Amino acid sequence: MSTSPATPPSAPTAAELEAREAELTLRHFTHDDAWALGTLLVELARERRAPVAIDIRRGPQQLFHYALPGSTADNDAWIDRKRRVAERYGASSFLVGTRFREKGTTFEESSRLDPDLYAAHGGAVPITVEGAGVIGTVTVSGLPQAEDHAMVVEALAKLAALSGE
């Protein structure tokens, strides 16, 4: 039996999430950009007293990881599961989960992927670079999924603004 696949009324639609993600394409993403993005996320989390873990990767290489007080090893496991979804689908883990819910099902029921390895819950967003496509991921875990996702989107938008994009 299905666990309520309906999208909550206040949740963004897949179309809204797709439009926002398209705005987050960067001109470049260097190791220094990973540091800047990571420190932006740490600052946002500290301001909000958010007990999150943060992970930034370029391809398979982890460029940044930080765990704020109150986060646990479970957050690292969630990061891995959400990151795999973003890598596989080339879209945020929140968008992937939303697409399944809008079809009247859930990711867990219909993706045919191992739920111990994949989680379509908000918090992992692909890093997309002009002319290169998806080159990595940035993931936050520790808050409700919509808040994890929103924190990543906010930091990516700030990074783009700092880079003059």
From TrEMBL:
Pfam families: HbpS-like
Domain of life of the source: Bacteria
InterPro entries in UniProt: PduO/GlcC-like, PduO/GlcC-like_sf, YBR137W-like
Family: Belongs to the UPF0303 family.
NCBIfam families: PRK02487.1-5 (NF002696)
Name of the protein in its database record: UPF0303 protein HA039_22355
